[in-house]
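sry for the spam today, last one i promise. struct tokens for design, 312 residues
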């Protein structure tokens, strides 16, 4: 299993000296001392409303928001990402989890044909720090940017300021960056995905979540992802999990994203939480086995199928 110690954590220069130890502690906690990120994305209750949590093919348990926290607690994840209010309501019962507060969100009601996307900042960093001071185990913040939107400049400015403030207070930052809007012809174009990775680096993010690029006639999606991973430089790149698919297919995709595409982990939501508690817990362990411990696909499938357990 790949491991790093505190001396191997590369601390950005905008982390204040008095926050350096806190940043290192948060980075190691978020990556489970591996340098790779297993992010359990639980921000869709605003992003996709209730469509991701109730309906055909979704386990009934997913309609209860506490399902997310039960999965995180019983499974193996690096961080659970969600809006501040969601975390504030449940974190007291699940203090062992590492939390990342999603600082902006929007619903999916307004389509890009009606207006370009803009995801507004919902609360100040000071309110997040107050929640941390109250005892919530918050190790980082997240922010979504829609590159190509006519509101791009506002989101870039908000993200840049938040990253500076977060680092100054020892928090890690994950950016969600998706090319989207009327000016964007293909959201999963490989060059745009690589461009998004470079933007995250220039803003100072620790990790960036992108969609995997669509394959071309000459290269597979993981091969094209390698270009984005290189463009991200010292910002770790992770891929969005997307809609729920067969576990074996998902694990194979993840393995290739890491070992061919150079990804530094994963950011998975629906593929986990739309399942029953038992199945979702086993899938977090299988995902983490690949992400954090370099298991191959068959070994991870054995974990998912309950033939062996996985713990860190």
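last one done:
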């Amino acid at each position: 299993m790949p491991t790093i110690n505190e001396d191997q954590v590369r601390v950005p220069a905008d982390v204040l000296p008095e926050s350096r130890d806190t940043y290192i502690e948060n980075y190691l906690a978020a990556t489970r001392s591996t340098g790779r990120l297993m992010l359990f994305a639980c921000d869709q209750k605003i992003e996709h409303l209730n469509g991701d949590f109730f309906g055909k093919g979704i386990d009934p348990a997913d309609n209860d928001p506490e399902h997310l926290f039960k999965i995180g607690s019983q499974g193996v994840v690096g961080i659970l990402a969600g809006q501040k209010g969601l975390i504030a309501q449940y974190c007291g019962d699940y203090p062992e989890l590492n939390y990342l507060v999603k600082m902006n969100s929007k619903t999916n009601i307004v389509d890009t044909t009606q207006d370009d996307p803009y995801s507004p900042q919902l609360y100040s960093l000071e309110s997040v720090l107050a929640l941390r001071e109250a005892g919530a185990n918050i190790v980082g913040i997240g922010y979504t940017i829609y590159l190509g939107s006519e509101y791009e400049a506002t989101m870039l400015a908000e993200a840049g300021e938040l990253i500076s403030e977060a680092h100054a207070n020892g928090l890690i930052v994950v950016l969600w960056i998706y090319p989207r809007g009327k000016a964007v012809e293909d959201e999963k174009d490989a060059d745009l995905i690589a461009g998004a990775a470079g933007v995250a680096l220039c803003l100072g993010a620790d990790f960036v979540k992108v969609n995997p690029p669509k394959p071309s006639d000459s290269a597979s999606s993981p091969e094209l992802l390698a270009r984005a991973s290189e463009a991200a430089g010292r910002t770790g790149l992770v891929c969005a999990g997307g809609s729920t698919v067969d576990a074996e297919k998902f694990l194979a995709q993840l393995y290739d994203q890491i070992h061919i595409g150079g990804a530094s982990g994963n950011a998975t939501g629906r593929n986990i939480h739309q399942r029953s508690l038992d199945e979702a817990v086993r899938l977090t362990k299988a995902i983490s086995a690949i992400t954090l411990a370099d298991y191959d696909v068959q070994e991870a499938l054995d974990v998912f199928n309950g033939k062996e357990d996985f713990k860190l």
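Strands lie at 37-41, 79-83, 99-102, 138-147, 172-179, 207-210, 236-240, 265-268. ok im logging off now
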